[in-house]
Amino acid sequence: xxxxxxxxxxxxxxxxxxxxxxxxxxxxxxxxxxxxxxxxxxxxxxxxxxxxxxxxxxxxxxxxxxxxxxxxxxxxxxxxxxxxxxxxxxxxxxxxxxxxxxxxxxxxxxxxxxxxxxxxxxxxxxxxxxxxxxxxxxxxxxxxxxxxxxxxxxxxxxxxxxxxxxxxxxxxxxxxxxxxxxxxxxxxxxxxxxxxxxxxxxxxxxxxxxxxxxxxxxxxxxxxxxxxxxxxxxxxxxxxxxxxxxxxxxxxxxxxxxxxxxxxxxxxxxxxxxxxxxxxxxxxxxxxxxxxxxxxxx
Length: 298
Known about the structure:
- This protein folds into two domains: 152 residues, P-loop containing nucleotide triphosphate hydrolases (Rossmann fold), CATH 3.40.50; 94 residues, Zinc Finger, Delta Prime, domain 3 (Up-down Bundle), CATH 1.20.272.
- It has 15 helices and five strands.
- The radius of gyration is 24 Å and the shape is elongated.
- The relative contact order is 0.10.
């Protein structure tokens, strides 16, 4: 099917197919891009193509390799896939497996998802394999932040950058795969091309609905009303950047009709930066709400 079941990043589809068709496969790759845009799906599908035994096609779905790959039982395919820190013991285990020659295919493919969570010790351990990889090995590191990787790791990998999904692509994925529709329409912008972020937003519909009600009706509520209604902001520190993005889009929409709201957008941007720089969280939320409602407070 050659990536036809994956939405987005069309240029990378052609690039990865071209690498195989021209037989220019390297030993190590870095798939870099923000979380939730399909990097792991691409790596998984490409691994199947690499391992396929049929030379005439990139993915025949008929050979022993393709059949075992689809049954999640391929002896030449290995994945480290976790959200927590990847430690040196896991890389040592991977290295042991790498030394074993392929059983079905001519190659062995190893994917390290969230590879930018590797400890420095784990990266240094992996470096030994990247410096002298067996001829049959292909290693794919997947991460959101390439700057976390050691320079020696980056220099030995072919980097492939992935773009965030376009809004229409993201809407299609949410509808077809998850039966989810985000509204109002500018809520999809908060996801910034990430399925993972969009799903997180969808799980917090009540939160975003209350935020929408308050910030779309700034003339309706007093500052005291706002502080009572938006206690949820103080309890959602882990999602605050997404929430602030949403509030900003609300005011951008309002600013199209009244320019006075542009100053509110500036305050939101200041708050986002201050929170990133570890300023006192509750004080930043207090100050932002005060600045947005100060016209109504007196």
